[in-house]
Amino acid sequence: MKTKKRKKTHVSFRINWLFIVVFLLFSALILRLGFVQIVYGENYKREVEKTEDETVDSPVPRGKMLDRYDRVIVDNKPLNAVTYTRLKGVTQEDKLKVAKKLATLIDVPVTTDVFGKSDKKKDKNTIKLTERDLKDYWIATHPKAAAKKITAADKQKVKEGQLSEDDLYPLQLKRITKNELLSVKDDLEVIAIKSKMEGGYALTAQIIKSGLTDKELAVISEQLGDLPGVDTTTYWDRMYTYDDLLSTLLGKITSADEGLPSENLQYYLSHGYSRNDRVGKSYLEKQYEDVLRGQKARVQNVTDRSGNLVSQETVTEGQRGSDLILTIDMELQKQVEDVLTKAVTSGAAGSRLMDRAFAIMMDPHTGDILAMGGKQLVTDKQTGARKVQDFALGNMTTSYEVGSAVKGATVLAGLDSGAIQPGTVFYDAPLKFAGGTIKKSSHPIGATGIQNALEQSSNVFMYRTVMSMAGETYRPGGKLNIPPSIFNKLRSYYSQFGLGISTGIDLENESTGIRNSVTNEPGKALDFGIGQYDTYTPLQLVQYISTIANGGYRMKPHLVKEIREPELDSELKGSIQSSVEPEVLNRITMGQSEINLVKQGFRQVVTGSHGTGRLLNTGKYRQYNIAGKSGTAETFNKGVSVRNSTFVSYAPYDNPEVAVAVVIPSAYVAGTSNTLSKTVTGDVIKAYFDLKKEGEKEVEQKEEDAKTGNTELNGVKKDDNEQ
C-alpha cells in the first residue's frame, strides 16, 4: 500500500509541473501578444494597409494640320474603343478568362497564314497572328500536354548544367505539332485579344479594339463588372479631310500595334514615350513630332499589396498637340492635282511609258510652297487596271534630266565667269569636230545673242559658252579639248541656284539628284550645259526659277508657315507659338543687269515669234504675263528613247507672285513632240490667279457686309478665314 501511495504522489507532482509550465508559456504568449498589440500594433496595421502609388501617362490627340487659310487638312477622328489595364499580380488564367469573355462580345478581325495562305481581306485594324502566338496560346490552354513536351532527358540535362530552365520553353514550342495547333484554330479571336492584353505595361490602358459599334459598346458597358481590367474609352485616329491629296507628303503615324519604331526606340523612351505610343513615322508627321504629340495626361494609380487597384487620380490634365499651319493652299492644290490627273490620263502623252507628272508652285519672295502636286499611274496587281495615286512626295525624292530648262543658269555662269558678255553673239549652225562629231540645235538659228538664244533654246549658244568657260575656241573640224574640271565649275555655279544640292526644305529624305561621274569625254561637258547629264528634282527647279524671278536670292522653301497653340473651340484660332520667317540661303554672284538679261530672254520664250513657250501667250493664258523656259531631255526608259518634258516659269513677269516648275518624265518618244508641260504650266498659273480673284471678291464682299451690318449671305454665315 505504501508503494502505491508513493507512485500516485509522484505522478500528481509531474502533472502539476506540466500545468505550471503550460500556464507560464501561455502567459508569456499572452504578454507577448499584448506587447505587440500595444507597442507595435499601429505599425503592423499600417504595413497591412500599405498601398503603392504608380503614375502612368495617358495619350492625348495629336495636333491638327491646316492650310494657309485655316482649312483643316488633317484632324483627329474620335472612335469608341475597349481597353485592358493589366494589374499587378494578375495570372495568365485570369487574362485568359477575360479574353474569352471579350471574344463573345466584340468582333475582332484576325488573319493568319499558319494554316495556309489567308484569303481574308486585311485592313489596318486586322490583327495578324503568327505561329508563335498560336503556340503560346496552346501551351497556356494545354498545361498537362505541354508539360509532357519536356522529357526526363531534358530535365537531367538541366541538372547536369547542359541546359538551363530558360531553354525548356523554346523546346516546348518547337515540339508542338501542326495537328495540335489545329485544336486552337477556332480560338483565333481569343488569341488576338489575349496578345493585345499582354502588349502594354502594367497599369497602362492597352487598346484592344478601336471603332466599336454602338451595339458592342453597349454590351461591354453592361458587363464591365464581369471583366476586371476592361474599360471603354475614346480613341483617336487620323482623319484626312481631302482624302488622298498630299497624302504622301503629310506622312503617317504608327499604329498602336507598331508602337515606337525599333530604329529610334531609345531616343523616344528617353523623351518620355511608352513603347506602344503612336508617333509620326514619315515626313510632316515625323518632322514635327515634338510639336504634334501634345502633353500626356498623368494619372496616379493606387494599388494595395496584392496589386489590386484601389483608386485613380488625375495628376495633370493632358493637352492635345499644337497645330501646324501649312503654306499650302488646298483649293489651289486640288486644282493642280486635277490638272496633273488629266495630264497623265488624257492620252495626250506621246509615250506609253509616261506614268507620272509633277507641278510645284512657290512664292519666289518667301519660299512658301503654295502647291506641291504629283500624280502617278500604277497598275492594280489584282485587276490589272491602271489607277492614279498621289505622288506629291516625288517632287523632292525623285530626280530627272530636265534639258534646256537650266539654260538660264548656264548663261549666268558664262556672264559671271567672263566667258561671254551681254552683247556676245554666236552663230548657231552645226558644230563639227574632228572624228565626225557634230553638236547642234534642234534647227539652225543663225546669229544669236543671249535673249534670242533663250527664246529659241539654242544649244549651240550654250555649247560655245561652255567651251569659252573652259578656255576653248571653236575651230571647225578641230579637236574638242575640254578639261574635266569644267564639270565642277558648272556645278559650282548651278548650286548657287539650288541645282544639285539640298534646297533646305523642312522635310527629311530630300534627294539632291544624281551627279554623274566626271568624264574626259568633252561632248558630255557640252551636254551638261544644256541639262543632259546630271539630274534634278522638281523642287530644285522651282527654287532655281524663283532665284531668277526675285532678282538673285535663293529662298529656303518650307511647308510649315506657323505653329499654333491647340484651341478647344474649333471655331477659334489658337495663339501663334512660332512662325517661319523667309530665309535667304544665298545671293547669287551675278549682277542685277545680268539677271535682267536672262529674265528678258525668259519673257521672249513666251512672247517671241519663235519662242518655245509661245503657247502661254495665247488665249486664256495671255493675261497672266508669264515668263519661263522650256526643257526637253533625251533619255531612256526601259530601253526606249523617250523625252522628258519640263517648263520653269513665273508670273507676272514684271512683278512675280508665283514660280512654277513642271516636270513630266517620258512625256513622248523620239521623233514626236507635245505641249503637255506648257499646258500644265498655263493651267496651274490660271488656277492661281482665278483663286486670287475669287479671294479678292470675298474680301470686298466682307468689307461691304461690315459696312451694312450684314454678316450673312443667303442664310449662310461667311467664314472669315476663307481666302
Automatic annotation (TrEMBL):
It is found in: Cell membrane; Membrane. One of its GO terms (molecular function) is serine-type D-Ala-D-Ala carboxypeptidase activity. PANTHER family: PEPTIDOGLYCAN D,D-TRANSPEPTIDASE, PEPTIDOGLYCAN D,D-TRANSPEPTIDASE MRDA. InterPro entries: Beta-lactam/transpept, Beta-lactam/transpept-like, PBP_dimer, PBP_dimer_sf, PCN-bd_Tpept. GO terms for cellular component: plasma membrane. Residues 358-684 form the Penicillin-binding protein transpeptidase domain. Its EC number is 3.4.16.4. It is a single-pass membrane protein. This is serine-type D-Ala-D-Ala carboxypeptidase. It is an enzyme of class 3 (hydrolase). Keywords: Cell cycle, Cell division, Cell membrane, Cell shape, Cell wall biogenesis/degradation, Membrane, Peptidoglycan synthesis, Transmembrane, Transmembrane helix.
